[in-house]
Amino acid sequence: MINHINVIIPAAGIGRRMKSYGPKPLIKIGNSTIIKNQISVLQTYIPNANIILVCGFKADRLMNETPSNILKIENERYKQTNVVRSIGMGLRAVTNSFPVMIVYGDLVFNSEAIKHIHLKKSCIVVTDQGMGDEEVGCVMDHHRMLTNLMYDLPYKWGQIALFVNKELELLKELCWDERNSTKFGFEIINQIIDKGGNFKCVYNDKIKIVDIDSSKDILKAKEILL
């Protein structure tokens, strides 16, 4: 079981196709919301996790309607920047040397996506179930080490990643560089690999993750939680 760790949940984006629903983490899936489902799974398998939620679109509502036992900060420049700035702000709020896990704020996932992550090595979660064809995929070698993230591949990055040691230091360096503030997370992971970083791909056929981008995704997400 993973013990002491920081979990940054970047959740600042508007989500233009889902804008009418309000902040995507507050979309109801089953009897709960996306963010409450996330926190429930995380706290079950990472009971000592320090959770940092980075808000943007309708930040007050998201902060007011999420549990009080997590840290909440606001990316006020969410319209002009991308997820990398939100991750960088979350990293600024970390006050210890523990590993950092990034979990995107619009994901619905089952426990298999979290419970097989090993604390000591940087890794990404990979799935071939639930993520749409338009999502970023993974190129892996025969040791299941990540070599690149790009589009149009069958195995998808589940938008969950763990950063430890060298990879964590590179994450901070790149996310705190203002020139990267409009980039996507997968671009930063590729840069970390280019600088000598290594990520193990955590995969098994029981991992299920849905990135909520449309009303159809809500239906798929409900099946995960059944």
Can you give a write-up of this model?
Strand 2 (28-29) and strand 3 form a beta hairpin. By secondary structure, this protein is of the alpha/beta class. It starts with a strand and ends with a helix. Helix 3 crosses helix 5 and helix 5 (165-175) packs across helix 6. The strands form four sheets. A seven-stranded mixed sheet has the order 5-4-1-6-11-8-12, with helices on both faces. It has helices at residues 34-45, 59-64, 83-92, 112-115, 165-175, 185-194, 215-225; strands spanning 5-11, 28-29, 32-33, 49-55, 71-74, 100-103, 107-109, 123-127, 137-140, 146-150, 156-163, 200-202, 209-211. The protein is built from seven helices and 13 strands.
Features:
globular; two-stranded antiparallel sheet; 13 strands; alpha/beta; 226 residues; 25% strand; 7-stranded mixed sheet; 28% helix
Helix/strand order, N-terminal first: EEEHEHEHEEHEEEEHHEEH
Secondary structure category? alpha/beta
What's the gyration radius in Å?
A: 16 Å
Work out the number of β strands.
13
Question: Proportion of β residues?
Answer: 25-35%
